[in-house]
Design brief:
By secondary structure, the chain is α+β, with helices and mostly antiparallel strands. The structure holds magnesium ion (2 copies).
Length: about 250
Protein backbone atom coordinates (compact mmCIF):
# COMPACT_ATOMS: atom_id res chain seq x y z
CA UNK A 1 0.00 0.00 0.00
CA UNK A 2 1.35 3.42 -0.94
CA UNK A 3 1.10 5.89 1.94
CA UNK A 4 0.09 9.37 0.78
CA UNK A 5 1.39 12.14 3.06
CA UNK A 6 -0.61 15.13 4.26
CA UNK A 7 0.80 18.62 3.84
CA UNK A 8 1.79 18.63 7.52
CA UNK A 9 3.64 15.37 7.02
CA UNK A 10 5.33 16.71 3.89
CA UNK A 11 6.53 19.67 5.93
CA UNK A 12 8.16 17.28 8.38
CA UNK A 13 9.73 15.36 5.49
CA UNK A 14 11.14 18.64 4.13
CA UNK A 15 12.87 19.05 7.45
CA UNK A 16 14.47 15.58 7.55
CA UNK A 17 15.30 15.90 3.85
CA UNK A 18 17.11 19.19 4.45
CA UNK A 19 19.12 17.58 7.26
CA UNK A 20 20.19 14.75 4.94
CA UNK A 21 21.20 17.29 2.30
CA UNK A 22 23.20 19.30 4.81
CA UNK A 23 25.22 16.25 5.89
CA UNK A 24 25.87 15.19 2.28
CA UNK A 25 26.93 18.73 1.38
CA UNK A 26 29.48 18.71 4.20
CA UNK A 27 30.71 15.24 3.21
CA UNK A 28 31.10 16.51 -0.35
CA UNK A 29 33.36 19.31 0.90
CA UNK A 30 35.49 16.80 2.84
CA UNK A 31 36.04 14.33 -0.02
CA UNK A 32 39.64 14.61 -1.27
CA UNK A 33 42.64 12.34 -1.79
CA UNK A 34 43.76 11.04 1.62
CA UNK A 35 40.35 11.28 3.29
CA UNK A 36 38.91 8.00 4.56
CA UNK A 37 35.30 6.90 4.34
CA UNK A 38 35.44 5.95 8.03
CA UNK A 39 36.09 9.62 8.86
CA UNK A 40 33.13 10.60 6.68
CA UNK A 41 31.00 8.03 8.52
CA UNK A 42 32.01 9.43 11.92
CA UNK A 43 31.15 12.95 10.83
CA UNK A 44 27.69 11.85 9.63
CA UNK A 45 27.02 9.93 12.82
CA UNK A 46 28.12 12.81 15.06
CA UNK A 47 25.96 15.24 13.17
CA UNK A 48 22.96 12.93 13.71
CA UNK A 49 23.73 12.84 17.43
CA UNK A 50 23.93 16.63 17.61
CA UNK A 51 20.53 16.93 15.96
CA UNK A 52 19.04 14.06 17.96
CA UNK A 53 18.28 12.36 14.66
CA UNK A 54 18.77 8.66 14.10
CA UNK A 55 20.89 7.35 11.22
CA UNK A 56 18.61 5.41 8.88
CA UNK A 57 20.98 2.62 7.90
CA UNK A 58 22.91 1.79 11.06
CA UNK A 59 21.32 -1.38 12.41
CA UNK A 60 18.97 -1.68 9.43
CA UNK A 61 19.02 -5.40 8.67
CA UNK A 62 22.28 -5.43 10.61
CA UNK A 63 24.08 -2.81 8.46
CA UNK A 64 26.92 -1.61 10.73
CA UNK A 65 27.51 2.01 9.60
CA UNK A 66 25.83 5.38 9.24
CA UNK A 67 26.76 5.89 5.58
CA UNK A 68 27.19 3.46 2.73
CA UNK A 69 30.52 4.19 1.04
CA UNK A 70 30.97 2.51 -2.34
CA UNK A 71 34.11 3.47 -4.30
CA UNK A 72 34.81 2.73 -7.99
CA UNK A 73 33.40 -0.71 -8.91
CA UNK A 74 31.32 -0.84 -5.69
CA UNK A 75 27.69 -0.25 -6.66
CA UNK A 76 25.91 0.22 -3.30
CA UNK A 77 25.99 -0.81 0.37
CA UNK A 78 29.79 -0.63 0.77
CA UNK A 79 31.24 -0.42 4.28
CA UNK A 80 33.22 2.69 5.22
CA UNK A 81 36.85 1.83 5.99
CA UNK A 82 40.23 3.33 6.85
CA UNK A 83 41.65 3.18 3.31
CA UNK A 84 42.52 6.66 2.06
CA UNK A 85 40.62 7.78 -1.02
CA UNK A 86 42.95 8.14 -4.01
CA UNK A 87 43.16 10.77 -6.69
CA UNK A 88 41.08 9.52 -9.61
CA UNK A 89 38.69 7.44 -7.51
CA UNK A 90 34.97 7.95 -7.44
CA UNK A 91 33.07 7.49 -4.21
CA UNK A 92 29.34 6.90 -3.84
CA UNK A 93 27.98 8.03 -0.50
CA UNK A 94 24.47 7.05 0.53
CA UNK A 95 23.01 8.59 3.68
CA UNK A 96 19.66 8.70 5.41
CA UNK A 97 18.23 9.65 8.77
CA UNK A 98 14.96 9.74 10.63
CA UNK A 99 13.89 12.88 12.46
CA UNK A 100 10.51 13.75 13.92
CA UNK A 101 9.14 10.44 12.68
CA UNK A 102 10.12 10.75 9.03
CA UNK A 103 12.98 9.49 6.92
CA UNK A 104 15.08 11.23 4.30
CA UNK A 105 17.38 9.27 1.98
CA UNK A 106 19.84 10.58 -0.60
CA UNK A 107 23.04 9.58 -2.36
CA UNK A 108 25.76 11.21 -4.44
CA UNK A 109 28.77 9.96 -6.33
CA UNK A 110 31.77 12.26 -6.14
CA UNK A 111 35.05 12.52 -7.99
CA UNK A 112 38.12 12.31 -5.74
CA UNK A 113 40.62 14.83 -7.08
CA UNK A 114 40.91 14.58 -10.85
CA UNK A 115 39.06 11.76 -12.61
CA UNK A 116 39.39 10.97 -16.29
CA UNK A 117 36.77 12.27 -18.66
CA UNK A 118 35.15 8.87 -19.25
CA UNK A 119 34.57 8.49 -15.53
CA UNK A 120 33.27 12.05 -15.21
CA UNK A 121 30.81 11.27 -17.99
CA UNK A 122 29.46 8.31 -16.01
CA UNK A 123 28.83 10.65 -13.06
CA UNK A 124 27.21 13.30 -15.25
CA UNK A 125 24.93 10.83 -17.05
CA UNK A 126 23.89 9.09 -13.82
CA UNK A 127 22.96 12.43 -12.28
CA UNK A 128 21.08 13.31 -15.47
CA UNK A 129 19.21 9.98 -15.30
CA UNK A 130 18.12 10.84 -11.76
CA UNK A 131 16.96 14.27 -12.92
CA UNK A 132 15.05 12.71 -15.82
CA UNK A 133 13.43 10.24 -13.41
CA UNK A 134 12.43 13.02 -11.03
CA UNK A 135 11.01 15.05 -13.90
CA UNK A 136 8.73 12.09 -14.75
CA UNK A 137 7.24 11.99 -11.22
CA UNK A 138 4.10 13.83 -12.29
CA UNK A 139 0.57 13.73 -10.90
CA UNK A 140 -1.54 11.56 -13.21
CA UNK A 141 1.46 9.75 -14.63
CA UNK A 142 2.37 6.17 -13.80
CA UNK A 143 5.14 4.92 -11.59
CA UNK A 144 7.05 3.27 -14.42
CA UNK A 145 7.28 6.60 -16.28
CA UNK A 146 10.09 7.27 -13.79
CA UNK A 147 11.70 3.90 -14.53
CA UNK A 148 11.69 4.42 -18.25
CA UNK A 149 13.06 7.96 -18.03
CA UNK A 150 16.05 6.74 -16.03
CA UNK A 151 16.70 3.79 -18.34
CA UNK A 152 16.46 5.81 -21.57
CA UNK A 153 18.99 8.33 -20.32
CA UNK A 154 21.53 5.78 -19.11
CA UNK A 155 21.26 3.40 -22.04
CA UNK A 156 21.49 6.24 -24.58
CA UNK A 157 25.11 6.47 -23.44
CA UNK A 158 25.68 2.71 -23.54
CA UNK A 159 25.66 2.26 -19.76
CA UNK A 160 24.21 -0.65 -17.80
CA UNK A 161 21.20 -0.08 -15.53
CA UNK A 162 21.46 -2.19 -12.36
CA UNK A 163 18.39 -4.43 -11.93
CA UNK A 164 18.94 -5.95 -8.49
CA UNK A 165 18.41 -2.77 -6.49
CA UNK A 166 15.56 -0.32 -6.87
CA UNK A 167 14.15 2.93 -5.52
CA UNK A 168 11.32 2.93 -2.99
CA UNK A 169 8.57 4.80 -1.28
CA UNK A 170 9.71 6.52 1.93
CA UNK A 171 8.10 8.22 4.90
CA UNK A 172 7.56 6.84 8.39
CA UNK A 173 9.45 3.78 7.12
CA UNK A 174 12.74 3.86 5.21
CA UNK A 175 11.37 1.48 2.60
CA UNK A 176 7.69 1.83 1.81
CA UNK A 177 5.72 0.77 -1.24
CA UNK A 178 6.15 1.08 -4.13
CA UNK A 179 9.43 -0.35 -5.40
CA UNK A 180 10.80 1.84 -8.19
CA UNK A 181 12.89 -0.06 -10.75
CA UNK A 182 15.25 2.01 -12.89
CA UNK A 183 14.17 0.21 -16.05
CA UNK A 184 11.02 -0.86 -17.86
CA UNK A 185 8.37 0.55 -20.18
CA UNK A 186 6.43 3.69 -19.20
CA UNK A 187 2.71 3.70 -18.41
CA UNK A 188 2.69 0.83 -15.90
CA UNK A 189 2.16 0.55 -12.19
CA UNK A 190 0.24 2.78 -9.81
CA UNK A 191 -0.92 6.22 -10.83
CA UNK A 192 1.13 8.98 -9.21
CA UNK A 193 -0.82 11.08 -6.71
CA UNK A 194 -0.03 14.25 -4.75
CA UNK A 195 1.57 13.41 -1.42
CA UNK A 196 3.42 10.30 -2.59
CA UNK A 197 7.03 10.42 -1.45
CA UNK A 198 9.57 8.46 -3.45
CA UNK A 199 13.28 7.77 -3.13
CA UNK A 200 14.43 7.65 -6.76
CA UNK A 201 17.91 6.16 -7.07
CA UNK A 202 19.52 5.09 -10.32
CA UNK A 203 22.58 2.83 -10.01
CA UNK A 204 24.38 2.92 -13.33
CA UNK A 205 27.38 0.84 -14.45
CA UNK A 206 29.92 1.89 -17.05
CA UNK A 207 29.69 -1.62 -18.53
CA UNK A 208 27.12 -4.36 -18.15
CA UNK A 209 24.27 -4.14 -15.60
CA UNK A 210 25.37 -7.33 -13.77
CA UNK A 211 26.37 -7.08 -10.11
CA UNK A 212 27.33 -9.52 -7.35
CA UNK A 213 27.34 -9.21 -3.57
CA UNK A 214 30.64 -9.78 -1.72
CA UNK A 215 31.12 -12.17 1.18
CA UNK A 216 30.31 -9.47 3.75
CA UNK A 217 26.71 -9.99 2.59
CA UNK A 218 26.29 -6.27 1.75
CA UNK A 219 28.77 -4.79 -0.70
CA UNK A 220 27.50 -4.97 -4.28
CA UNK A 221 30.15 -4.73 -7.00
CA UNK A 222 30.01 -4.72 -10.78
CA UNK A 223 30.56 -8.19 -12.21
CA UNK A 224 32.79 -6.85 -15.02
CA UNK A 225 34.90 -4.69 -12.70
CA UNK A 226 33.74 -1.44 -14.37
CA UNK A 227 32.90 1.73 -12.46
CA UNK A 228 29.44 2.34 -11.02
CA UNK A 229 27.66 5.53 -9.98
CA UNK A 230 24.62 6.14 -7.77
CA UNK A 231 22.56 9.26 -7.18
CA UNK A 232 19.40 9.48 -5.10
CA UNK A 233 16.86 12.04 -3.94
CA UNK A 234 13.75 11.80 -1.80
CA UNK A 235 11.03 13.41 -3.90
CA UNK A 236 7.42 14.42 -3.23
CA UNK A 237 4.83 14.21 -5.98
CA UNK A 238 2.83 17.47 -5.82
CA UNK A 239 0.24 19.32 -7.89
CA UNK A 240 3.02 21.78 -8.72
CA UNK A 241 5.32 19.06 -10.02
CA UNK A 242 8.00 16.96 -8.36
CA UNK A 243 9.60 18.50 -5.29
CA UNK A 244 13.05 17.36 -4.16
CA UNK A 245 12.96 17.05 -0.37
CA UNK A 246 16.63 16.16 0.15
CA UNK A 247 17.94 19.58 -0.81
CA UNK A 248 19.22 22.60 1.08
MG1 LIG B 1 19.90 5.83 -0.07
MG1 LIG C 1 17.15 4.60 -0.89
Amino acid sequence: MIVVKSSAELERMRCSGRMVAEVLETLRSKVAPGMTTLELDRYAENQCKKWKAKPAFKGYGGFPYTICASPNDRVVHGFPNADPLLDGDIISIDFGLIYDGFYGDSAVTLAVGEVDSEVQKLLDVTLQSLEDGIFAALVGGRLSDISQAVQLCAEAHGYGVVREFVGHGIGRALHEDPQIPNYGPAGRGPQLKPGMTLAIEPMINSGTPAVKVLEDGWTAVTLDGGMSAHFEHTVAVTENGPEILTKL
